[in-house]
Specification:
By secondary structure, the protein is an alpha/beta fold. A hairpin with a 4-residue loop joins strand 4 and strand 5 (134-139). Helix 21 (657-667) crosses helix 28 and helix 28 (854-867) crosses helix 29 (885-895).
């Protein structure tokens, strides 16, 4: 035999003949084990490749002192098999790492999963074979693998972040990493120990290390919020709920926001007194439940800087009460991020540990580490001799473990690392365009670390396995997301991130803890239940956003974006759909008014302002009610005359109360909301004439109302936008009053129903074509509808005051609002438009419900101030001028 052939055969033997399977899974933790079970039941041949020596995933590696889960273990458990749930009982509310590892071993044994796992095996390369339509995997131990589908079950927190400090290799003592703790433990008795890092692993381990060490020095760069776990038996109230109706409990978890069955909180912080807020906080503090305190204090705690700051202050009080040394207490108090924007930690005696005589805290903000030496650690102020250094510096989260299995090469030689060079790009957090038959369990772009991982893992595994089975049964052999679907998901991810305060923190959620990593909110912030419904919608719409191919079937590609609405708009519309309300137009005018009044009782109260005064003014045929909203700052203030929405049939001077209050706070101007008369009792042109008469009277009596004499501004939403636009035309034609500017929010400007937005948005977005028909019929006869006092687009638009016109993508009135703005601009009127992407007709008046409407209201406020000759911004010292303004400009730019 020729030498070359001998050498080639020897090389083949060393590599081994590839093992052929349907599915290869990387990882044998919570995700990998459930995947093996589901894939086996679905009839797929499978192998799992696990670098560790046994099952457990992150719980195999993280064996540092004090390691526990931070979700109650009755929730942090598999739910797919009731018999499994009955067979295992947790010993504590928050199980320790050894117990969780035993649990996963118990599951592996119960379902005989280890026979399909290759332990001690790391994937060193994965590449897509276009001709064979298979993934070819190379490993560092044993034969390579050839698989039809490749699934990453690598976990979100399984790639430890290396230290970033000079001199680590020079240290002569012992070095340990919390994420790779020795399995046989570490004896720290009598030793001088340094812990670098105060994230979750540091906060959990520091109290136990302090009990052993001769002296412990904690090096803290960034303090984190920590809450007492109050560990012990599982709480009786939660156990009663679970045992009373296990199926309902689990289903509520699946549909919840965080994967734990707590209801949505409805009370907002400014509705509660200080005593009420403190009572709620003390109850949550006493529960020792991370999800509870993150979700159940008040509705605005995770979306509003002011509401969140109240919690931060209360936690700082707790720290100050426990830690005796004021300087140490101050160093332990976070001030650089909102509560919950970084993952808060559950602790046992963490803050009290700093009262021990053998514990020292080094504040690296004041004295950064200069180097690690042979004997210890040198900072800008001191040298600390230590025998042991423990790095509790965290993980390269979300993407680190996936990219560690590299290179991953997809279609046409595309590198996953290259595709993610500017941040992870995914569809649903499950798949990546250009990488056929490649899946991630709880990958970037899914709820993952912002949820109960057990619930998210089961949902992902079920979705993936069900899809693979459906593909197989239909004769398809490849599945891959489209570029448009992936881009749409990334846009939706960005929209979701503006809802929460995560964007305001440098955290591993955003990749900020890893030098050089592109920053951005990586987990899906829209909630577990909404995410699940989106995944289900992808399936119900014919695998929307995926291209499917097979050798004996026609290719299928139902391209598109699964979510086009803003995330909170989608939630609102879905909630309204579940109520199964009869059409408003079927209620009659009186019934519709009663419904709207009742509906408004459930909305958040408007925020506090300076003063609110009710009164009446003389209209053309009798008195009209009005409500004055005054800023807290001393006046006089420019006056905005405001007209409410309601199709000329519904509403009153109080019906847009939260919007008026919000705009007063943003503008620093005075709003006068007018209660004009309604149809059908008072048909056209009553509302138009009332609006003009009220504006004229308010302008003449501005000083008496507490406003600034001179030109007024007008504003209105929907039918109120119609009245505002008409008022500007009448004021021009009738000799006043002087109007400095007009804000028209989703205005009615014409009677023509033929524009595309009336057809595209005819149903499904609350304001329907049918409802607009009803409004028009009650207000105006067909013969009168071309009158400019009801269809201002049909009037003369030159010579009008400058305008800011807001339209929403999913609104029947969208195109006529745009047409009016374009007509004014063509006639020489200064006009600015906000075309609000993903919003519906009511978005901007649903204050503190549709949070993504806040940036648009910032732009409205800036326009009104500009019309009044004021600087563009009023400083509020809250989220309206800080937390929402910055991302708001991004949304507005994308929208307009």
């Amino acid at each position: 035999m020729p030498d070359a052939m001998v050498a080639a055969r020897a090389s083949d033997a060393a590599r081994g003949t590839p093992r052929q399977v349907d599915v290869a899974v990387v990882g044998a933790g919570f995700s990998g084990l459930y995947l093996l079970h589901r894939l086996r039941k679905a009839g797929f041949t499978t192998v799992a490749l696990e670098e560790a020596g046994d099952v457990g995933g992150t719980w195999y590696w993280n064996r540092y002192p004090g390691a526990r889960c931070d979700i109650q273990t009755i929730d942090y458990s598999y739910t797919f098999d009731p018999e499994l749930e009955a067979a295992w009982t947790w010993s504590e509310k928050y199980a320790t790492q050894p117990e969780i590892l035993r649990y996963l071993g118990f599951v592996a044994d119960r379902y005989e999963l280890r026979r399909d796992i290759r332990f001690g095996t790391k994937v060193t390369e994965a590449s897509w074979d276009e001709a064979a339509e298979r993934w070819q995997l190379t490993t560092d131990n044993g034969a390579p693998v050839s698989c039809r589908h490749y699934i990453m079950a690598t976990g979100c927190l399984s790639a430890p972040k290396p230290p970033e400090i000079d001199g680590v290799k020079d240290f002569k003592g012992e070095v340990y990493f919390t994420g790779r703790w020795p399995h046989d433990g570490v004896n720290l008795a009598g030793k001088r120990v340094a812990v670098i890092g105060t994230g979750s692993s540091g906060i959990q381990s520091i109290p136990l290390i302090a009990e052993q060490a001769a002296h412990l020095t904690v090096f803290q760069r960034t303090p984190n919020f920590a809450l007492p776990a109050h560990n012990g038996p599982a709480p009786s109230d939660r156990m009663s709920l679970l045992q009373g109706d296990r199926a309902a409990y689990r289903e509520q978890a699946r549909q919840s926001m965080a994967g734990v069955p707590y209801p949505q909180q409805t009370a907002v912080s400014w509705q509660l007194s200080d005593a009420e807020r403190r009572a709620r906080f003390e109850e949550a503090w006493g529960k020792g439940d991370l999800v509870y305190i993150l979700t159940q204090l008040w509705a605005d705690q995770a979306v509003d800087v002011d509401g969140n700051r109240l919690i931060c202050d209360l936690i700082r009080e707790k720290i100050s009460a426990v830690v005796k040394d004021p300087e140490t207490a101050a160093a332990l108090m976070p001030h650089d991020h909102p509560f919950g924007a970084k993952r808060p930690c559950l602790d046992t005696n963490y803050y009290a540990t700093y009262n021990r005589s053998n514990v020292t805290l080094v504040n690296l903000r004041q004295e950064p580490i200069k180097a690690i030496t042979a004997a210890g650690i040198t900072t800008a102020r001191r040298s600390v001799d230590v025998d042991v250094i423990v790095f509790a510096t965290g993980f390269d989260a979300m993407t680190g473990a996936i990219r560690a299995v590299h290179p991953i090469t997809g279609r046409g030689g595309k590198s996953l690392s290259g595709v993610w060079a500017q941040g992870p790009q995914t569809y649903l957090g499950l798949t990546v365009e250009g990488f056929p038959n490649f899946f991630m369990i709880t990958g970037p772009g899914s709820p993952s670390v912002l949820s109960n991982m057990a619930v998210s893992i089961e949902q992902h595994v079920d979705w993936v396995v069900d899809r693979l089975a459906a593909l197989r049964d239909a004769g398809f052999t490849t599945i891959e997301p489209t570029e448009a679907a992936q881009a749409g998901w990334n846009r939706h991810m960005a929209d979701c991130s503006t809802l929460t305060l995560h964007r305001l923190a440098n955290t591993w959620y955003t990749g900020a803890n890893v030098p050089g990593k592109v920053q951005g909110v990586m987990p899906y912030t829209g909630g577990v239940g909404p995410y699940r419904s989106i995944c289900d919608e992808v399936v119900s719409r014919g695998m929307l956003g995926f291209r499917l191919t097979g050798p004996n079937v026609a290719a299928q590609c139902n391209d598109g974006k699964v979510v086009r609405l803003q995330p909170d708009v989608r939630l609102v519309l879905n909630l309204l759909a579940t109520l199964n309300l009869p059409p408003i137009e079927s209620m009659g005018a009186l019934g519709a008014r009663a419904f709207v009044n009742e509906f408004n009782k459930g909305r958040p109260a408007g925020r506090p302002i300076g003063d609110v005064v009710d009164g009446t003014l003389p209209g053309t045929d009798g008195p009209l009610p009005y409500r004055v909203y005054k800023p807290a700052a001393p006046g006089p203030h420019p006056v905005v005359v405001y007209f409410h929405g309601g199709g000329w049939v519904l509403g009153d001077e109080q019906s847009d109360d939260p919007f008026c209050r919000d705009m007063v706070r943003r503008t620093g101007m005075m709003f006068v909301s007018v209660g004009y008369r309604h149809a059908p009792e008072h048909r056209f042109p009553t509302a138009a004439e009332d609006g003009y008469a009220a504006t004229r009277w308010i302008a003449e009596h501005a000083a008496e109302l507490g406003g600034k004499p001179g030109p007024v501004l007008v504003a209105g939403w929907s039918a109120g936008g119609n009245i505002a636009a008409v008022t500007c035309q009448l004021a021009r034609d009738r000799g006043g009053p002087d109007i400095a500017g007009q804000l028209l929010v989703c205005p009615v400007t014409d009677c023509d129903f033929d524009r595309p937005s009336y057809n595209d948005n005819a149903t499904g977005y609350f304001l329907t074509r049918s409802l607009m028909d009803w409004f028009w019929d009650l207000y105006c006869s067909p013969a009168d509808r071309i009158d400019p006092r009801v269809s201002p687009l049909r009037g003369k638009v030159a010579g009008l005051p400058p305008a800011f016109v807001v339209t929403c993508e999913f609104d029947p009135l969208r195109d006529e609002g745009i047409a009016y703005a374009e007509a004014m601009a063509a006639a020489g009127v200064p006009v600015q438009q906000l075309k609000a992407r993903g919003h519906f007709h009511s978005s901007f008046t649903m204050v503190d419900v549709v949070i993504t409407g806040a940036p648009g209201r910032v732009q409205m406020a800036e326009a009104l101030r500009r019309f009044a000759g004021l600087p563009p911004e009023v400083s509020l010292g809250d989220e309206h001028s800080h937390g929402h303004t910055s991302p708001g400009h991004t949304i507005a730019a994308a929208a307009s």
